[in-house]
Write a structure and sequence with these properties.
heterotrimer, A mainly alpha (277), B mainly alpha (275), C alpha/beta (242), A: 277 residues, ABC transporter involved in vitamin B12 uptake, BtuC, globular, C: 242 residues, Rossmann fold, three-stranded antiparallel beta sheet, 11 strands
Chain lengths: 277, 275, 242
């Protein structure tokens, strides 16, 4: 078998590829909302916040996805509460919650792991060790994402475009906003297995940001993001396999490279197009 | 009893850790207060992350970490600036993409089998392993940052509280913000050795944010921030010594707890510094 | 048509951002709402929309209300076409889990036509000019089948020609039977309206443009009024707020 296909005859590679395929629609649908509404920092924070949960999951015997959900959910609620304290900026609250979660996780981890490798897996992904449990969790996340999108996509777009609206959608917007926050948390938890707590943006933000450079409609943005998520995911997976590096890191670097290339092409076309006009 | 207080700092290692923590507190406290006032918390977080590949490269090549980190930060800043200019990419997204990519690159580099650098230390720091040379470098950098803060004090105050008036008085808020970010990068470089790439933000933001909630006048707030930061550092060292917890993480937690306690204070009336 | 009696309300319990609003606006009437920043213009609009957290007093509205924000508030980098934006006005027609009826889309197209932009239906919102964007936002309000329109400084930031075109659209909408309230900074615009409401947290004056005496203006703008030496033009100094 020619090289690119050959590794994929291995069962664990096939599972990893399947995980990426399940993640792709999530990366497309939710990633689009994340970049349209400037929620990248929030996404990164939720991802990082799952770290202490993941550290505890193993020894406590809880499925990691559940632990991540519990911690991520607590984080999001806490952040919401903090955001209501008068005079406290959202940014500061997010940054401090994030670092607190990380510090707690590290303190816990030094008791739980004697080598650093366990921590690496949690932080940067274990795509090459995906089991059936994780695949099931991702499939459930996908179902939840599709459901939320079917209900709220219209409202998300309308309120993202113009938060002030005045279209009589006020109550609906509040529900939809809450749903989006929850959907991001679910997406993050799904991504954490593949790319790790610290690199969820590599799946949820970078492909969508790249697609955004050229998309002329929200639908094409979603499709582009999903497609790129698959391509970059598989490419990163191959790299991780060949070079024996964490898959999350490989996907992140590949994604960044594609983004830079795309941005360059767009900028050049604009420059040349402007000159010709 | 007194012995209990001084034990952690009595040996060589402990003594150096104490010196490092005090220096860091003096720098990060006031600087962090400014960062919070200028609403640049996300920038602080990102700068720390973006420094990773530079740090790793420096560790691999055996160069002083500061050099590598400086180069890495410069690259990151340029990349973020360029990416953010694309009309369809907001600053929030641009920073996320660049930082995540650089972070991934750093991890890739650090986990090559030939690399001596332990990723864990770069990420999480180890105040107990600072050398005298590193303390000297910290002291030097601290002197520079504090001198700048003192020198630019009035401009910072003006640009932070009233950008419009600042412009009419010949102070350019954009340039001031740039100076602040450069100082921020400097402080990150200094703090990375002790706290690591990921936790630096705790000592940078938490004491400053806490001081802002407790006070109102600018100068006392900055002084309070420094004190809180130093105390957090020492508290972390105590926790590390007596409870055998990771030192960098303990300092970070101590800082965040300080802030949490400060939020219990009633907010200032009269809508003072909105952080 | 809109009628309020002693309308008051605000964002926190116990504090009123606006109070003592007594107005009556009939179809085919254009009311200019004058007042300083922070004086309650947007709050009044929200109260009329029913989107103010705390509201007391009587509000009677016959028909539907729609709000048209300033163009600067809408995002220019969203990949949505003019038609998409107009269609957003119809989103309230169906619950979130149902598809929009075909009739809604037709209304959006028609609304674009009313503001003269049917040719630009497929153009991205961000690629339109300032005046065109403002008209699309008006179309969005029209698609809501509203007969009361609340316009928040529709002419700000527009050049003369665009402002004139938007102004024409507003006049036509008014003449065809709608009641329109326009928040504005420009006292001269207020002078050509059917009625003027001077608002600075409380209602200072309401009536035909004749109510715009120097004294009323002074009470509205809180003494930040400078009358130029020629005597017939008054300039408002924008208050510096944090």
């Amino acid at each position: 078998m020619p090289w690119p296909i050959d590794p994929f005859t291995l069962p664990f590679m096939q599972r990893a590829a399947f995980e990426l395929l399940l993640l792709a629609p999530i990366a497309g649908l939710i990633g689009a909302q994340i970049v349209l509404r400037g929620l990248a920092f929030y996404t990164h924070a939720v991802g990082t916040a799952t770290f202490p949960g993941l550290v505890l999951a193993g020894p406590a015997g809880i499925p990691p996805a559940l632990a991540a959900l519990a911690v991520g959910g607590t984080f999001a609620t806490f952040l919401e509460r903090l955001g209501r304290i008068r005079g406290l900026g959202r940014d500061v609250a997010t940054a401090l919650c994030l670092v607190a979660a990380l510090a707690v996780g590290i303190v816990l981890a030094s008791d739980v792991f004697d080598s650093g490798s366990g921590v690496d897996r949690l932080l940067f992904g274990s795509l090459l060790g995906i089991g059936d449990e994780e695949l099931l969790a991702t499939a459930i996340a996908l179902a939840a994402t599709l459901g939320a999108t079917a209900l709220f996509r219209r409202t998300w777009i309308a309120s993202g475009f113009d938060p002030q609206g005045g279209l009589g959608l006020d109550r609906r917007v509040r529900v939809a906003d809450w749903a989006l926050v929850a959907a991001i948390a679910v997406a993050v938890i799904a991504a954490v297995d593949a790319v790790g707590a610290l690199l969820v943006s590599a799946t949820l933000v970078t492909p969508a940001a790249t697609a955004r450079l050229v998309a002329r409609s929200v639908t094409s943005l979603e499709l582009g993001a999903a497609g790129l998520a698959v391509a970059e995911g598989l490419g990163g997976l191959l790299l991780a396999f060949e070079l024996d590096v964490p898959p999350g890191a490989a996907i992140a670097v590949l994604g960044g490279g594609v983004f830079a290339l795309a941005a360059l092409v767009v900028a050049l076309r604009r420059r040349l197009g402007g000159a010709a006009a | 009893m007194f012995d209990g207080l001084t034990d952690p700092f009595s040996g060589e290692i402990g003594g150096r850790a104490l010196a490092e923590v005090i220096l860091l507190g003096l720098v990060c406290g006031p600087l962090g207060a400014w960062v919070v006032l200028f609403r640049q918390s996300y920038a602080a977080e990102s700068i720390a992350h973006a420094a990773l590949p530079g740090l790793v490269l420096a560790a691999v090549a055996g160069l002083p970490l500061l050099l590598g980190a400086a180069g890495g930060l410069l690259t990151a800043a340029i990349a973020i600036g360029l990416a953010g200019r694309e009309r369809n990419v907001g600053p929030d997204t641009a920073v996320a993409v660049v930082v995540t990519t650089l972070f991934g690159a750093g991890v890739l580099l650090a986990l090559q089998p030939e690399v001596p650098a332990r990723l864990g230390e770069i990420l999480f720091g180890d105040p107990l392993s600072v050398s005298t040379g590193e303390i000297a470098a910290t002291a030097g950098l601290a002197a520079v940052v504090l001198t700048f803060l003192a020198g630019f004090h009035r401009s910072l105050a003006l640009a932070g509280f009233d950008p419009q008036a600042a412009r009419s008085l010949g102070v350019r808020p954009r340039s001031i913000e740039l100076v602040l970010l450069v100082l921020l990068a400097g402080a990150t470089l200094v703090a990375v050795q002790a706290l690591g790439n990921l936790l630096v933000v705790a000592l940078l933001l938490a004491p400053g944010a806490a001081a802002l909630r407790l006070n109102r006048a600018l100068a006392p707030t900055l002084a309070l921030a420094a004190i809180l930061a130093v105390l957090a550092g020492m508290a972390g060292l105590y926790a590390s010594y007596y409870l055998e917890l990771a030192a960098g993480a303990s300092i970070a937690l101590a800082a965040v707890v300080t802030f949490a306690l400060a939020t219990l204070w009633p907010p200032l009336r009269g809508g003072a510094a909105r952080i | 048509m809109v009628r309020t009696t002693d309308l008051r309300g605000g964002y926190a319990p116990g504090t009123d951002a606006i109070a003592e609003i007594d107005i009556e606006v009939h179809p085919r009437q254009l009311v200019a709402v004058l007042g300083p920043n922070g004086g309650g213009k947007t709050t009044l609009f929200r109260a009329l929309l029913g989107e103010l957290p705390h509201r007391a007093g009587a509000v009677e509205i016959i028909g539907r209300v729609a709000y048209v924000p300033q163009t600067e508030r809408a995002r220019l980098d969203f990949p949505v076409t003019a038609l998409d934006v107009a269609a957003m006005g119809t989103y309230a027609d169906a619950p979130w889990y149902r598809r929009l009826p075909a009739e809604s889309r037709a209304r959006a197209v028609e609304a674009l036509g009313t503001v003269g932009l049917e040719a630009k239906a497929r153009t991205l919102f961000g690629e339109l000019s300032g005046g065109q964007r403002q008209r699309v936002l008006i179309a969005r309000a029209l698609a809501r089948d509203a007969n009361v329109l609340l316009l928040d400084e529709p002419l700000s930031g527009l050049d003369r020609a665009s402002a004139a075109r938007v102004g024409t659209v507003i006049d036509e909408l008014c003449a065809s039977g709608r009641a329109i309230l326009v928040a504005t900074h420009d006292i001269n615009d207020a002078r050509v309206a059917d009625r003027v409401l001077c608002l600075n947290r409380k209602q200072i004056a309401y009536g035909p443009p004749e109510v715009l005496s120097a004294e009323t203006l002074e009470r509205t703008y809180g003494g930040e009024l400078i009358t130029l030496p020629s005597g017939d033009r008054a300039v408002v100094v924008q208050h510096h707020t944090h």
